[in-house]
Structures are given as structure tokens and as C-alpha cells.
Inverse folding.
């Protein structure tokens, strides 16, 4: 078998790692399972063929490599570690470096795999190892898939969404156009649980759950507030959406703003809330991120209440809201066209981004066991989708330039 064939197919077929060639290639790993790339580069024994350098070059040109360049992994890791309590100096050394742990959290929604499946793929893919800044000895791979869950649960309580998004926007700002314009809408990112019924919950929760669900309703006839729908995740509440195919959803409701197709979480809650009252806070958060006053704003009709209309008029913000009453004769045609375009963008680009995040980045039904872990998966899923979008734009721009040339 030609050497070039073996190396080209290495990441696609982990079984090739057992080939004798790769045993020699990774001989310098004889005493350790995993090392940082920066620690071993100077000791590699290659003379005539620097295969690792070829992998580095191919990694930079790959989608995963481009996404890696678009993510401020070190800065996010430092921001989270700054909030953590100091560790016992005699504690175990982490398997991954700090930025590698953050990279692993991004890889989870990128691959859409289970924790065990992610570690198995990581063991056999040099590109994924480079994404995490490590190299793994193929004769001594990582076998414990629980390491992903352990990292997630350790990082989750200290994730600050606003601070993290500020770092991401600072990295992505040069790639974005029309930063004074933004779209806003809310959606529910559902949790992975079966549809709750009183009977199922009563069997799981026994008497204490029965008292909570039934007694208040029998004695007062009032609806039950903060109704529990899952015993092991008691923080989840029903979100009434009023959709044709799904009247109620269960999970985190998120109000997002979108700048040039890139989404940022303005507010999220596991309690239902009316997104229509969050237009002002969305405008303020847009200015916090960009430093710019809002220009055109696209929002759903639920945002078009009188208070929001007055606020937009006072701040010279153009919206896609349908005018109340007859259209003034002196209204400029360009203004009507702008409103129509903004409304079309909100209905297509933003709704499509929600579907993309849920379908392709592990956010359709989030499997988590506590609110911190669920919020962390939500954060990394949304922003992995953002990074992939920017990487796809870069690739498309390069292809257009090649065609012109």
C-alpha cells in the first residue's frame, strides 16, 4: 500500500493507526497517552519527510482548521478559569490543556456524537487532535468517554455567556458587514425528555409529586404555577409556543440578536417569557457588543407593541413593523422597500439559522442533567454554528477569487 494513500486515509480509518508505519511514527509517545503539540514538536525524529507538518498544512485549509482560527479558545478558557476557585496544588493534572477543553466543547456540537463517540473519533483523527492542541498515542488511546461529561460539568457553572460572546464578537467583528443592523427573535431549544403527563409523573414522583400536581388544582381551581415536567430536571418549564404541530415545548427559551447572519444570545430562561418586551434590551445589547447605535432592526410582529414603536421612533430606528393606520402620502418609497427587505431577512435568514443550529449542531433535543450543563451546551452549539458559517464564507470567497483568476 502506498505511503501517501495510508496518510491520506488516516483520519477516515482509525484502524490504520495500527499499521507498523504509524507505530514508528508515534514511537515518541512510549510513556505518555497524550501530549500538547507544542511540547513535542521540537523532538520529532523526522528528517526526510515531515508528515506532521503536512498534516498541519492540510488542517489549516480544512473546515475544522478554519473554524479553529475563528475561535478565541485561549481567551474563553482564561475567562472561565478566572471565575473558578483555585485548585488543590496536589490535584491530578488535566488530560487536556485549558484551551483544549474549550475546543472539545465546540467539537461536541460540530460532530453531533455522543461523549463516547466523540472520544473514539478524537483518538483516530489527527485533525481533531490538532483542533484540541494535543496528540494522542494510538497504542494508548483515551478510553473513558466520561471525560467529556466531567469537563462539561466542571466548566458549566463558571460560564458567563455575555463575557464569552464579547470575546467571540471581538474575534469575528472584522468578518461582519452592516454591523449597525440586527435582527431579533426568540425560539425554544428543547430538552431531551419524553412528553410529560400527570400519570407518568405520578408514577415517578409518587405522593409528593401527586400533592404538587393535583391538590392545589382541586382546592382552588387555579392553574399550577412553575409546574414541574421532569423529576430529574425540575428547572424545566413548559413553553407554550402556539405552533400548529407543537403547542408546548420544554426547554430553554432564548431571545437572540443576529448581526450579519451571526447569532448572539441576548436573554435565555427556562421559564416562559414574552420576548415582545425585550426589544429595548436587544438594542442596548447590540450597542454593548458593537459599540454602534442601532440602525435598521428586524423583529417579529410580537415586538410591534406601542411602547416599542415609540422607542424606535424616538431613536430613529427603522423597523419592519407594519404601520398603523393609512400610509402617509409623503412616505418615501425607499423606506417602504427597506421595511420589506428587513422583514424578509428576519423571516428567512434568522428562522433558517434556528433550524440549522437545531438540526446540525446538537440543539434539537439537548441531553443534560442540570441547568448549567444545558446552558453550556446551548452556548457552544450556537457559536459553533456561527464559526462554521464564517468558515464557509471564507471558503466560498476563496473559490470565487480562484474562478476570477
Amino acid at each position: 500500500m502506498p505511503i501517501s494513500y495510508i496518510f491520506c486515509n488516516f483520519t477516515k480509518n482509525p484502524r490504520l493507526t495500527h499499521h507498523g508505519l504509524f507505530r514508528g511514527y508515534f514511537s515518541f509517545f512510549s510513556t505518555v497517552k497524550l501530549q500538547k503539540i507544542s511540547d513535542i514538536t521540537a523532538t520529532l525524529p523526522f528528517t526526510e519527510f515531515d508528515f506532521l507538518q503536512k498534516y498541519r498544512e492540510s488542517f489549516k485549509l480544512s473546515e475544522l482548521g478554519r473554524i479553529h482560527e475563528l475561535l478565541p479558545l485561549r481567551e474563553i478558557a482564561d475567562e472561565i478559569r478566572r471565575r473558578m476557585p483555585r485548585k488543590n496544588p496536589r490535584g491530578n493534572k488535566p488530560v487536556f490543556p485549558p484551551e483544549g477543553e474549550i475546543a472539545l466543547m465546540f467539537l461536541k456540537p460540530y460532530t453531533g456524537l455522543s461523549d463516547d463517540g466523540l472520544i473514539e473519533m478524537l483518538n483516530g483523527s489527527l485533525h481533531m487532535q490538532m483542533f484540541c492542541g494535543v496528540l494522542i498515542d494510538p497504542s494508548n488511546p483515551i478510553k473513558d468517554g466520561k471525560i467529556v461529561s466531567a469537563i462539561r460539568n466542571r466548566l458549566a457553572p463558571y460560564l458567563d455567556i455575555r463575557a464569552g460572546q464579547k470575546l467571540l464578537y471581538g474575534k469575528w467583528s472584522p468578518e461582519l458587514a452592516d454591523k449597525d443592523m440586527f435582527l431579533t427573535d426568540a425560539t425554544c431549544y428543547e430538552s431531551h425528555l419524553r412528553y410529560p403527563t400527570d400519570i407518568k409523573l405520578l408514577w415517578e414522583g409518587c405522593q409528593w409529586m401527586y400533592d404538587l400536581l393535583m391538590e392545589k388544582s382541586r382546592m382552588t381551581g387555579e392553574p399550577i404555577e412553575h409546574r414541574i415536567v421532569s423529576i430529574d430536571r425540575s428547572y424545566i418549564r413548559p413553553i407554550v409556543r402556539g405552533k400548529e404541530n407543537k403547542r408546548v415545548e420544554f426547554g430553554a427559551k432564548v431571545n437572540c440578536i443576529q448581526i450579519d447572519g451571526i447569532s448572539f444570545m441576548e436573554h435565555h430562561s427556562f421559564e416562559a417569557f414574552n420576548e415582545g418586551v425585550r426589544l429595548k434590551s436587544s438594542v442596548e445589547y447590540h450597542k454593548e457588543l458593537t459599540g454602534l447605535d442601532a440602525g435598521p432592526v428586524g423583529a417579529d410582529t410580537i415586538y410591534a407593541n406601542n411602547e416599542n414603536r415609540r422607542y424606535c421612533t424616538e431613536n430613529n430606528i427603522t423597523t419592519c413593523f407594519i404601520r398603523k393606520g393609512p400610509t402617509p402620502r409623503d412616505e418615501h418609497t425607499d423606506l417602504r422597500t427597506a421595511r420589506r427587505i428587513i422583514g424578509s431577512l428576519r423571516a428567512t435568514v434568522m428562522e433558517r439559522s434556528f433550524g440549522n443550529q437545531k438540526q446540525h449542531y446538537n440543539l434539537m433535543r439537548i441531553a443534560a442533567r442540570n441547568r448549567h450543563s444545558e446552558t453550556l451546551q446551548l452556548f457552544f452549539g450556537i457559536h459553533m454554528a456561527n464559526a462554521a458559517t464564517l468558515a464557509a464564507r471564507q471558503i466560498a470567497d476563496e473559490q470565487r477569487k480562484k474562478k476570477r483568476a
User: Anything to note?
Assistant: Residues 371-404 form the longest helix (34 residues).
